[in-house]
């Protein structure tokens, strides 16, 4: 009974907030107001509260621009959590645009949808990402290219860092800042989650969305830890593979330190 009351409360609040904010966001997108960058953050903070997602931040978001954040990816919750922490836009695969609910939300946040299989479109997509970063937007990349089980970082694809390279000529300093970020789900109802229970938060993709969403709301108390790491300066002469390897190592260390509850050098 309590679980269903929690679900009803979350649904009513999220619906009410969406009715107020979404038309305003559509106007902001239509006229390209800077407000379009800030409204999603307010919406996601409220949604995280309603879902019982308690967000904790360690480290500091880089002040320098252009800025690309590179994060591990285990669930649709990552998008909610990162959007609640900073005014960001996401790089997403084109299939996401057709997803129910999340496709609409991604469009409202002005995500960049990429078609990785069509090389002829890669240059245009990279230019769009580069232009957005050059305009001061923070772009989030999930370099694994898919979701994991939340216990580890999968192989990072260096090709996805091409957008950072494309943005270098647009930067007044000739540098694009690439910052690693780890999102870890560590506790449920204040108790350490552990490997066995982490699938509660993780969404590998073979689980139906609605049941997973209902499980999250029923739970009502998940701790998410967002850790910002040391950034890498990407310049014209920078090796994409070296940056990819460095960022992957730093994300992995950040993630492991949060999951294990101790710092890893």
UniProtKB/TrEMBL annotation:
Residue ranges crossing the lipid bilayer per the database entry: 6-29
Main location: membrane
Highest taxon of the lineage: Bacteria
Any coiled-coil regions, as ranges: none
Location within or outside the cell: Membrane
Entry annotated with the keyword tRNA-binding: no
Domain Phospholipid/glycerol acyltransferase: 67-186
GO MF terms, alphabetically ordered: acyltransferase activity
UniProt keyword annotations, A-Z: Acyltransferase, Lipid metabolism, Membrane, Transferase, Transmembrane, Transmembrane helix
Keyword Transmembrane helix assigned: yes
Pfam families according to UniProt: Acyltransferase
Protein name: 1-acyl-sn-glycerol-3-phosphate acyltransferase
UniProt lineage: Bacteria, Pseudomonadati, Pseudomonadota, Alphaproteobacteria, Hyphomicrobiales
């Amino acid at each position: 009974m309590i679980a269903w009351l929690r679900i009803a409360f979350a649904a009513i609040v999220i619906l009410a907030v969406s009715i107020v904010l979404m038309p305003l966001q559509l106007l902001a997108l239509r006229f390209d107001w800077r407000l379009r960058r800030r409204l999603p953050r307010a919406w996601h903070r409220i949604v995280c509260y309603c879902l019982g997602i308690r967000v904790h931040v360690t480290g500091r978001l880089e002040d320098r621009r252009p800025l690309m954040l590179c994060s591990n990816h285990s669930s649709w919750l990552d998008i909610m959590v990162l959007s609640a922490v900073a005014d960001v836009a996401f790089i997403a695969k084109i299939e996401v645009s057709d997803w129910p609910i999340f496709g609409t939300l991604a469009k409202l946040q002005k995500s960049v949808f990429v078609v990785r299989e069509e090389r002829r479109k890669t240059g245009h997509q990279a230019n769009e990402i580069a232009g957005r970063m050059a305009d001061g937007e923070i772009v989030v990349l999930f370099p694994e290219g898919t979701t994991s089980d939340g216990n580890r970082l999968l192989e990072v694809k260096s090709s996805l860092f091409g957008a950072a390279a494309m943005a270098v000529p647009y930067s007044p300093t000739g540098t694009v800042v690439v910052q690693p970020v780890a999102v870890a789900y560590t506790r449920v109802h204040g108790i350490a989650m552990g490997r066995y229970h982490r699938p509660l938060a993780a969404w590998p993709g073979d689980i139906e969305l609605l049941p997973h969403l209902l499980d999250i709301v029923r739970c009502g108390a998940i701790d998410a830890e967002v850790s910002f790491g040391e950034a890498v300066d990407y310049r014209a002469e920078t090796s994409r593979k070296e940056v990819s390897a460095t960022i992957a190592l730093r994300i992995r260390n950040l993630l492991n330190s949060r999951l294990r509850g101790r710092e890893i050098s």
